[in-house]
Structure formats: structure tokens, C-alpha cells
Amino acid sequence: MTTPVTIYHNPRCSKSRQTLALLREHGIEPAIREYLKDPPSAKTVRSLVKQLGITPHEILRKKEAAYKEAGLSQDSSDKNVVDAIEQFPVLLERPIVVCGKRAAIGRPPENVLPICGIEG
């Protein structure tokens, strides 16, 4: 039985496209979640953060206009950051690949290979 793989993908993002292509080069056809069209819930964002082993602030795109619009700062609580990502999915760092219970941010794209059992 193969482990399901999901990519939180933005087709307009070059790193996201490169990560998807890299997975496919290694024979992995992930479930594609275009998170701007299908935003993750706060529960899903918390799950991603846990799988990544980082804080919500570390998956936050701080240069997006929505960062200011959401009233975020480096002092924002984890809950406020998660809620803002749910409301403004453009704030979610991309791409994120989930393989089973593990996840990685595809920056650079090769970061996702080890979680899928592939040596880069």
C-alpha cells in the first residue's frame, strides 16, 4: 500500500510547479489541493504546522498585502496566525507536501523528497 501524498499547490508559483514536477519525475502523482480555491480550515493549518514541526509564524508569507490587512505582526499569537491563514489562504507558504504523517515545504523543491522516502 502506498502512502498518500498531497501537495498544497499554487499553479502560479514557480516553486510549487517545480515541486509538483519533481514529485512526478519520481513517480509520485500527488493529490493536488489548490489552496487558494479550496482554503484549508484552521484545523488543517494546525495539523500542517504539527506535521512540519514548526510554528504557525514559520508558514506565514509576511510580504503579502493580506499580512497587513489581517493585522498580523511578529507578536501575533499562534491562534491569530492560524485564523488569518484560514481567512487569507494566500498567507500560507507554498508549496507544502504531505506524505503520510510527515510534511515539508518545497523551498527548495528537493526538501520534499525525504518525507516521501526518496533520497535527493
Overall description:
This protein is α+β, with helices and mostly antiparallel strands. The chain has a single domain (5-116), classed as Glutaredoxin (3-Layer(aba) Sandwich). The protein contains four helices and four strands, in the order E-H-E-H-H-H-E-E. Strands 2-1-3-4 form a four-stranded mixed β-sheet. Strand 1 (5-9), helix 1 and strand 2 (31-34) form a beta-alpha-beta unit. It is globular and about 40 Å long. The model has no long low-confidence stretch (mean pLDDT 95).
Weakly predicted, low-confidence segments: none
CATH topology: Glutaredoxin
Class based on secondary structure composition and strand pairing: alpha+beta
The CATH architecture comes to: 3-Layer(aba) Sandwich
Shape: globular
The major pleated sheet works out as: 4 strands, mixed
Question: Quick recap of the structure?
Answer:
Helix content is 32%, strand content 14%. By secondary structure, the protein is an alpha+beta fold. It has one domain: Glutaredoxin, CATH 3.40.30.
Keywords:
120 residues; Glutaredoxin; alpha+beta; 4 helices; globular; single chain; 4 strands; four-stranded mixed sheet
What are the SSEs and their pairings?
Layout: E1 5-9, H1 14-25, E2 31-34, H2 42-52, H3 65-69, H4 78-87, E3 96-99, E4 102-105
